[in-house]
Amino acid sequence: MGVISLKVVIAGRTYPLNVSEEEQGKVLKAAEDINKAFDLLRTNYAVKDPQDLLAMSALQLLSKNQSSAKTETVTLPADYTSIENALAQLANDLEELN
Predict the structure, then answer these.
(1) Which partner for 19 in 8, 23, 55, 85 could form a disulfide, CB atoms 3.0-4.6 Å apart?
(2) Contact (Cβ atoms closer than 8 angstroms) between residue 11 and residue 30
(3) What is the C-alpha to C-alpha distance for residues 42 and 34, in angstroms, rounded to an integer?
(4) 37 in a domain, yes or no?
(5) What is the pLDDT along the chain (98 residues), one digit of tens a residue?
(6) Is residue 68 situated within a structural domain?
């Protein structure tokens, strides 16, 4: 896939970017999320400085992202599960020897 030029508007300012075609959707979604958070904070709080609003938006979005990442569980493929079981059995056998 190739690289495309993209203009992203965040908080009323345009930022030219070069991204891969596969990243385009993620970048546009991120810009949309930032703008929504920015507008929500600007509406609900008396903060007028765009830099402060952007910092607050970044903090809000990243903390939300980190908490959702912690709740995700990873399922090991069957071959890893068998290795994990073998290691647990080995640990039990070593404990019995000591």
Answers:
(1) 23
(2) no
(3) 12
(4) yes
(5) 699 999 999 999 999 999 999 999 999 999 999 999 999 999 999 988 999 999 999 999 988 877 766 665 666 566 666 667 666 777 777 777 76
(6) yes
Query: Which of 2, 65, 1 is CA-nearest to residue 30?
Result: 65
How far apart, in whole angstroms, are the C-alpha atoms of residue 60 and residue 51? 14
88 is a domain residue: no
- For the chain, how many structural domains are there in total? 1
**Distance, CA of 60 to CA of 66 (rounded, Å):** 10
Quote the pTM value: 0.64
Parent domain of 69: 3-73
Note whether residue 67 is domain-resident: yes
Instruction: Give one DSSP letter per residue of the chain, joined into a string.
Output: --EEEEEEEETTEEEEEEEETTTHHHHHHHHHHHHHHHHHHHHHS----HHHHHHHHHHHHHHHHHHHHHH---PPPHHHHHHHHHHHHHHHHHHHH-
